[in-house]
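Could you join me in thinking about how sequence relates to backbone shape in a protein? To get us started, please write out a protein record for me. Would you write everything just below, so we can both look at the same thing?
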Amino acid sequence: MQTAVIGGPNSGRAIILPTDAEELLRWRRGHRASTYWCGTQLGGCGNELSDRLYRDKVCHFAHRPHTSCHRTATGATSADHLFIKDDLAAWTGRLGIKGRATSRDLGSGPGDAVDFRTGNGGRQHVRFQFSKLSHAEWAGTRDRLTREAATLDWVFGPSTVQPETMEELCDEYGYLLRFRFETHGAARHIRLRAEDPGNSTAWVPLRACVMTPEGLRVPGAELRRRTSGPRPFDEADTATAPRSRDDQVRALREALTSAARFRTRPTWEALCRTAGDDLLGVSPQDRVGLLVAVEQAGGEGAPLLSALLRTGEGEPPPCIREVVAAVAGGTPATAQVLKRWCQREADRAFAVYGMPSRTAPARLALTADGRIAAQRAEPSVRRTIVHVEARASVLEVTPLSEALRGARERQDRRLVVGLLEQAEDSIVTLPKSEHAKLWQEMRTARDWLNSGVTKRKRKRQALVNPVKKARVKKEGGTLRDARPLPGLGDKPKKRKKSS
């Protein structure tokens, strides 16, 4: 255990124990009266700890004998949510502003996030995210916090942001805020920077940042807020002219293409944060007209980008049925048919616009009564496309988890690989129950593929170097050099004839 708190079980004053024996001796001489505790703000038991000095291994904190503790995070980073409070207190004191920092437990511990509020009535909000959030969790929390604050800045720690979250923030603001910690003696201090897909600013201490009326600002980061907040005003204090319909169509297509590039399926509200807030208020009928115009701009045979849209429950919005009818030459008869059809178009969009791009499956044809038409087999000479079509035809009538299991039982490695690609694209849109089932089957399929690779590798090595194998067998498989057991291998002694 490397971290503890000083003074008492509920203390927020954190310490990292020096790992070197000489450094720990110096620390002891300077802090003779200090007591160390498995702090409750660290998720600990609240019992007292002792520091253990070793010269042959790492020094650490330890509980007293017969102590029961279920604390899970014990490494050097486990107290970062307390160290950041010290940095924030010093920062606000230097700036001469009032602020309050609060730790948040989001399900995995008291250090999942730290909320910092300042400004008039705490209306300016900065969240430091320590634990990983799904894009849906982040989007829902962001909507709630935005309604409560005048400005909201989200700063992400290492490995805590999803690609779709990063893409949405970079589209809206021009960059993403990041933080990390550096160890200095028995404490750790925060460093921040701004990142965008092209470059990043330098890591700077918190004291180099400023709090402005627009929110937290990092040196070198140029804010390009595109869609949030009210409409801009010119110098004459009159609202700028609304965008034309062509501009709205162009912005929608760019936002949907960007979502396909990052393999995400946004809601209409999330899409409008990228394409423009003026689209939030359009009527359902106008929304259909805009999306139809988006698809007509794509040309013949292009994936239907509108199929990427989903509701908060992961279903296609009702207006997509009208878009499909206007563009694809058929109207899905049921919600299930519409969902399957949109999933195929989403896969096609991911294939065409993703990085790197790949061969897209064919569009699902609809019958006159709105059902999915039977797929025709492709000529045998186009083997790659035949394989993709076979994979797609399985998915039209079979859940992904069952299709994966069936392909694995038939030992069809090529189909398993293809289905895994489909599963990685589709799993984010599934309900929670189906998500867990598919995730388990994906793990089983990957383990099966890896075990097959290992067996083939051993077999190839045996074929490449059979002499070595024979030599090992000869050297280790005979008793030529072993000492015989008593009574075995000895010739019977001849008796002397008596004269």
Observations:
- The radius of gyration is 32 Å.
- The first helix runs from residue 21 to 30.
- Residues 104 and 110 are 6 Å apart (CA to CA).
- The chain is about 40% helix and 15% strand.
